[in-house]
Amino acid sequence: MSVSRREFIRSSGAVVVYFSLAGCEQSQDVAGKDVAIHDNRIRINPDGSVELFMGKVELGQGIGTALAQIAADELGVAFEQIRLLTVDTDFSPDEAYTFSSISIQQSGPKVRAAAAKAREYQQQLFGNQPANEPGVVGKSIQRLDIPGKVFGDASFIQDLRLDHMVHARVLRPPAERAVIQSMDSAPVVTMPGVLRVVRDGNFVGVIAEREGQARAAATALAPLIHWRLPEDLPDGDEVYNWLKTANSRTEEIVAHGSVDVSESDSYYQATYRRPYQAHASISPSAAVALFQDSKLTLWSHAQGMYPLRDAIAHTLGLSPGDVRCVHKEASGCFGHNGADDAACDVAALALEMPGRPVRLQWERDDEFLWEPLGPAMQIETQAVLDTNGKISSWQYDLWSCPHASRPRGADSAGHLIYAKHKKNPLPEPPPYSIPQPSGGSDRNSVPLYAFENVQVNKHFVTDIPVRGSSLRGLGAYGNVFAIESFMDELAKTSAADPFEFRRRHLDDARAIEVLDRLQEITKWQSRPQPGTGMGWGLAFARFKNVSSYLGLVVQLRVNAYSKAVQLIKATAVCDAGLVINPDGLKAQIEGGIIQSSSWTLKEQVSLSNIAREARDWISYPILRFNEVPDVEVVLINRPDEKSLGVGETAQGPTAAAIANAIFHATGKRLRQLPFTPDRFE
Amino acid sequence: MSIRFTLNGKVVAVDVEPGTALLEVLRNDLELNGPKFGCGLAQCGACAVLLDGVSIRSCVTPVSIAAGKHLTTVEGLGDEKKPHPLQSAFIAEQAMQCGYCASGIMTTAAALLTSNESPTRDEIRNALSGHLCRCGAQARMIRAIERAALAMNGDDE
Q1: B103 shares its domain with B141
Q2: Are residues B69 and B113 in the same domain?
Q3: Structural domains in chain A?
Q4: Which domain range does residue B111 map to?
Q5: Of A248, A580, B50, B82, which is most buried by a Cβ count within 10 Å?
Q6: Same structural domain for residues B92 and B148?
Q7: How far apart (Å, rounded) are the C-alpha atoms in residues A673 and A121?
Q8: Does A536 or A46 have the greater pLDDT score?
Q9: CB-based contact B24 A211, cutoff 8 Å
Q10: pLDDT confidence bin for A6, thresholds 50/70/90
């Protein structure tokens, strides 16, 4: 349970010292004083205990533990002395979002700098010598949050129970642009425990004393709302043709040399497709809000508390100073899921119930039908092989909708579902194209390979059929799948070994070392003959071309009759610079490989002409325990290089390694994700 | 109407509608955190608890079913002072990313280890095939369950 800022300061004792990046200028005896502490990173209490103000949030990736390791190291104190304070807009540094696998790069150096300042001042403030505990950076320190999760402590937003809390559910339209024609809430208002039925335009919610009563009310109300349904979506695989004909603008991502591939004799082309896919977090989104004395306090598992505060304040007509957002963990989000929307929903509902905390739990189908999906991609590649078996020209075109629609503040609050559905909707924000080197749909669209002539075009589709936004890796998943599949196809055409073919196009020593190590560890030379039903596949990428390197070999078996793909083993080699926590890094990569295996073998959100067809775990199956491979991850630690994130590094290589292994096993080249048995026809 | 059952070794009585979902009673009335809401459809396993030793889905089970019976949640497996070997093993193997699904998985794994003290890797995979983990921590969880089985058979220390 969080405490208010004043309590927070009072409870901290007589002399408390805050350290920001600038030093300890703001340090003071704060008893009874209110201080602006938003720049502070580290607080040292009189008993010597250290509190670390997180600017990034814990998403199950272990960032809190890694930052605590950095702070402990720099301060020279025992790791156990560090306590983490999650992001709270009342006192935390504003680091916007926790995304893009950059937390350790962005937040790590700031924590280190503040800790260094703290160490400098420690002696003069406390009259003691700085401690000198052995360093913990580079050690596999166990995560701070895991024991609580194992013993059933209150770890998640779902475990937040406030006095006199009431429960809410929302009722969404059956399609994104459906509108209410009529609604009869009379029979529901008198149901047991029902406190409010809230309607604002096309937004409908119910509030009841007990959670089961809120569910019952929502179930009863659903058939009493009549919607007008538009039939405006591209149906099934039509979406790929639709992407090419919809309104779009073309951005040249890279162009050097002369790429006129069609003139050449040895010219190859292929088309790859990645479907709409869901974050499908295991817990549907939830949020708690309390509106009291004209102030709104909001507990949310969204990835950025400050942007959320600004977007929701704007949407509800409140001043940002009257809104406080506090982060609470939920299940892994893997990007922009329903968290922000649920927070805005519950904030709107809490305004109707002043003085009582309102807890909103989305149902499973709320999440599947309304989360912003990872957008579909159509990718067309062409290449020319010269007489030495080298790629001389490379042409690459991709079509996709925006991969970013976060409500970042007032200007883009219109992305929130409530903001779209309320009676006076906010304007639809203009489609946002994330620039390179991060890129959105074009993330990792530029090959790391040194080709003489390269052209990459991003066709940024500005018509938006269904909500879409950032899903782990963004375009890197589709682009690395396409590039690394095409590399495998071209290696085969050149009769070259896949490792050797990649190395001949690489001039990056770290990339080459990753490949060398992987080849050695997997004993690649012992892979089976092609076409036996057993397949080994290789893929490689450097995430965003500026972050961590990952090479991956997948071993699998394809059932000759059912065409079911059974993964056997995945072996990865990763170079993420200086490693802060080796086991934490491995865990993230293992998780990425297994999750991407699931995307690659099973996952797609099909559209009918009205709505999404995935609404539960039956219509959106994911990989199960009996289907996951054994996973081995080997790290190359580089103490002299800066630390790089690995949260999204494995997503693309996994897809391509599986495609390449399937080709090796069966001779069948699959270019459209996911690789369900019908794709073999 | 008061419904009585034994929860993690202690007799409890709750005064709720008999059709109320067991998960709601455990989480909202008895304030346990272990069983989680994941789908409400008995599809994901986040809400799994043991009813007389058998893993059930508390999200679709009316609380009246529990009357007079023994319920075990992850809180009942052990605590920080006296952890269940599975809890120790999940920490030792760092067998989760977000950990939201882990309580349900540990309770089903506890039932497995009661009926089969040395399960093979495939038996573990199959026993847990009704549980979903979105973070992809399955490989670690399988290793943790193997480690717990070894510890329970005294092969560990």
Answers
A1: yes
A2: no
A3: 5-150 (3.30.365), 158-229+281-370 (3.30.365.10), 239-277+373-403+439-680 (3.30.365.10)
A4: 85-152
A5: A580
A6: yes
A7: 56
A8: A536
A9: yes
A10: very low
C-alpha–C-alpha distance, residues A547 and A560, integer Å: 39
The residue type found at A653 is P
ipTM, two decimals, is 0.97
Chain A: give the shortest CA distance to residue B72, in Å. 12
Strands A391-400, A453-461: pairing kind: parallel
If you measure CA to CA, which chain A residue comes closest to B107?
A150
Preceding amide of A677 cis, omega within 30: no
pLDDT computed for residue A128 by the predictor = 58
Arithmetic mean of pLDDT over chain A: 92
For residue B157, tell me if it sits in a domain. Answer: no
* Cβ pair A332:B20 closer than 8 A: no
- List the CATH number of the domain containing B118: 1.10.150.120
- Interface probe for B, chosen from A101, A144, A150 (most Cβ of B below 10 Å), is A150
Pairwise CA distance, residues A441 & A433, whole Å: 8
Chain A residues touching B137 at Cβ < 8 A: 587, 590-591, 594
Instruction: Please report, rounded to a whole number, the percentage of residues in chain A having pLDDT higher than 90.
Output: 81
What total of structural domains would you count in chain B?
A: 2
Q: Are residues B108 and B70 in the same domain?
A: no
Q: What is the pLDDT of residues A71-109, one digit of tens each?
A: 888 888 888 889 999 999 998 888 889 888 888 888 898
Position A569, amino acid: K
Residue A50: how many CA atoms within 13 Å on its side-chain side?
29
Give the pLDDT score at A23. Answer: 52
What pLDDT shows up at residue A48? 74
Tell me the pLDDT tens digit for each residue of A149-161: 999 999 999 999 9
Q: Are residues B71 and B6 in the same domain?
A: yes
Supply the CATH number for residue B63's domain: 3.10.20.30
Q: Which residues of A31-49 are buried (b: 16+ CB within 10 A; e: fewer)?
A: eeeeeebebbbbbbbeeee
Domain end position, chosen among B77, B109, B124: B77
For the whole model, what pTM was predicted? Answer: 0.94
CB < 8 Å to A154, chain B: 33
Mutation to test the B interface, candidates A141, A145, A151, most B Cβ within 10 Å: A151
Phi, psi of A142 (to 5 degrees): -70, 145
For B45, nearest residue in chain A (alpha carbons): A282
Say whether both B134 and B111 belong to one domain. Answer: yes
3-class secondary structure, A570: strand
Q: Which of B77, B98, B129 is the last residue of a domain?
A: B77
